[in-house]
Specification:
Strands 1, 2, 3, 4, 5, 6, 7, 8 and 9 form a 9-stranded mixed beta sheet that branches. Strands 10-11-12-13 form a 4-stranded antiparallel beta sheet, with helices on one face. It has 23 helices and 13 strands. The longest helix has 30 residues, at 199-228. With 626 residues, the chain is of the alpha/beta class. Helix 16 (501-513) runs antiparallel to helix 17 (515-529).
């Protein structure tokens, strides 16, 4: 072979490789860029959503050339579970990740959505909050941090970029603000029916709107950057909030006010074939969409069908699905306090299923009580100075709630027992049960058992294994336990003798939910349960006897709780469950306060994001502020 021929072949090969690379780059760039602009802790309190008190000129202009979703849901009413929904495309109750800042893992063959996008050719950046309740495995983002930016992408690469703005976060409602940014008059605030009308509440709502105006300026900067780089015509832009407002009874609660978020999407002309079917410039849609749908929608925009394990539906792009009839939400442990709530929304009615109705809505959460509104609201309730609608938040819950947003946008008139709405509640109740069964909701397990039953597998896999998770039996027990009545109370005696510890857990919970009468009925069974092989069952039985039992029973119950209360010895999940019980049994915990004060304040094995929760409970019990 001649030297000339060799050179010619090398050059041809190089040219072919370059042409191939260029062709790939062009093919990749045929994909739209995608920009997500997100903000924290704000509902649709924007001018473009009809809030005349709001000052949001940039988002208002953006909405005039985009599509507004009026019934978008964050799926969870607090940041970490909501973001976990997005990153996985799976409902956190199915992955064991519903509890605030918990940490579980996905099955090894499941990937977070940026990995799929990167495989499709996207350069993916996140600036900068992650806050997932799932372990990150491998290289999820090309760059994630405060310097992450689409500007850093390689030539020819389409980008997917997130910019998250924290200026509207709950913490910003209660801190100092520059006088120049204090532009909303507290006297002109329109208060929801459940909040008392006090100077503190008005100030907090006004500053919440001030922070939204500041956030709006940052959104404007993000949009200008795109235009200045001449990329606006090549980029699909989403703006959304990460859940409802940071005000109490919005954030952390799965009412519509806690789940409804602003979602505005702009699709440039060249990519109109990827737009939602309802797309109209400057228009709006009441289609039910949620965070569960975002990952499938991104993949659909990129031309790919979502993997089977994703539980949402694409609402734009090549694989757009039909509109859904229901939107689902949930609430699990919020910081240091346990709860279990599930919701269904049909576009008009909000159905709420409270599985722990003995717990008041307004449990003491250290972080939430730093907001002045929370404290003054709490104090006015205990002073007897609130009306009925304002008082509900500090009371225990019914098993079911139903609200008609058409006539009751503040969700204060519970229609669950209305005969006129019996067909509605039956339909939504059935939708809830079907959803929980279909996604394999493992939130019916005590948090410690989510991990112990999973063993070396992921909680998701455990939840799909009938031998380890009998959904029908456990969900039935939870349903029975949380509904008061003669028949359901009689059933508890059978359930507390089940071979399944989660069924026994709910039976003990059922006696606790029924208060003094429940403990009187189930006394013998509860005393026996103090020696149950499941620590979670023992703790709930101890709480029941500690609150409503006889003196000697309460004394023994406190001793049982002390066995599980030290986070360093028992792990954060059992410790929190026991400490919550010790906090509520009051005087019966007094003999142990000195010992509690000496407990380790953290579980060294817990993930850093939830490590301080036991400390908050210990501080609450012993009266210090460490």
């Amino acid at each position: 072979m001649s030297f000339k021929f060799k050179i010619t072949r090398v050059l041809f090969s190089a040219a072919a490789m370059f042409a191939s690379a260029l062709g790939q780059a062009r093919a990749e760039q045929a994909l739209p860029n995608i920009l997500w602009i997100t903000s924290e802790d704000n509902g649709p309190h924007l001018g473009c959503y009809g809030d005349t008190y709001a000052i949001t000129p940039n988002l208002d202009r953006f909405a005039k050339r985009s599509l507004r979703y009026t019934k978008a849901s964050s799926t969870a009413p607090v940041c970490a579970p909501a973001r976990t929904t997005i990153i996985s495309g799976i409902y956190p109750p199915a992955t064991g990740a519903e509890h605030m800042r918990s940490l579980t893992r996905l099955p090894v063959d499941f990937k977070m959505y940026p990995v799929y996008l990167r495989e499709l050719g996207y350069y993916c950046t996140n600036n900068s909050k992650e806050d997932y309740n799932l372990e990150k495995v491998g290289n999820v983002w090309d760059d994630s941090g405060r310097k992450a930016h689409w500007k850093n992408r390689p030539d020819g690469k389409p980008f997917f970029a997130i910019f998250n703005h924290t200026i509207s976060h709950e913490s910003q409602i209660r801190n100092k603000i520059n006088s120049a940014d204090r532009i909303h008059d507290p006297a002109k605030v329109s208060l929801p029916a459940y909040h008392p009308d006090t100077p503190e509440v008005r100030k907090d709502w006004a500053q919440y709107h001030d922070r939204i105006t500041m956030m709006d300026k940052l959104v404007g900067k993000n949009l200008r950057e795109l235009e200045e780089a001449d990329l606006a015509n090549d980029t699909i832009v989403f703006y959304y909030g990460d859940h409802g407002s940071g005000m109490p009874r919005s954030k952390r609660w799965p009412y519509f006010s806690g789940l409804n978020v602003p979602l505005i999407i702009h699709v440039p002309e060249k990519f109109k074939h990827l737009a939602p079917p309802e797309y109209k410039t400057g228009g709006s849609t009441d289609r039910l969409v949620g965070f569960i749908d975002l990952a499938p929608t991104l993949l659909s925009i990129a031309g790919a069908k979502a993997p089977e394990h994703m539980q949402g539906d694409a609402f734009m792009g090549k694989h757009t699905a039909p509109p859904q009839a229901f939107s689902f939400g949930f609430r699990g442990r919020m910081d240091e306090r346990y709860d279990m709530v599930r919701t269904v929304f049909d576009g008009r009615h909000v159905y709420i299923r409270n599985y722990m109705p003995h717990k008041p809505y307004g449990q003491y959460l250290d972080y939430m009580f730093q907001t002045p509104t929370t404290r003054v609201w709490h104090d006015l309730f205990h002073a007897g100075k609130l009306n009925a609608a304002q008082s509900v938040f500090w009371q225990t819950k019914p098993a079911e709630e139903l609200y008609d947003l058409q006539s009751d946008p503040d969700e204060v008139n519970n229609l669950a027992k209305s005969k006129e709405h019996s067909a509605v509640i039956k339909r939504l109740r059935k939708a809830h049960h079907n959803w929980a069964r279909d996604v394999r909701d493992i939130g019916f397990l005590p948090e410690a058992e989510i991990h112990s039953r999973a063993g070396n597998d992921s909680p998701y896999e455990m939840g799909h294994d009938d031998s380890r998770y009998d959904f029908d039996a456990i969900s039935h027990a939870a349903n029975n336990a949380s509904r008061k009545g003669k028949k359901t109370t009689e059933k508890l005696a059978e359930l507390i003798n089940s071979d399944d510890s989660a069924v026994r857990y709910w039976a003990a919970m059922g006696y606790l939910i029924r208060g003094k009468n429940g403990v009187r009925t189930g006394r013998e069974a509860l005393v026996t349960a103090l020696g149950d092989e499941s620590p979670s069952v023992r703790i709930i039985a101890a709480e029941a006897l500690g609150r409503y039992g006889r003196k000697r029973e309460a004394k023994r119950a406190a001793e049982v709780l002390m066995q599980f209360a030290d986070p360093a010895k028992n792990g954060i999940c059992l410790s929190m469950l026991a400490l919550n019980a010790l906090d509520i049994i009051g005087d019966h915990a007094d003999p142990h306060r000195e010992a509690i004060a000496k407990f380790a304040r953290i579980d060294p094995k817990a993930n850093g994001r939830m490590r301080n929760y036991a400390n908050r409970l210990i501080s609450r019990i012993v009266g210090d502020s460490r």
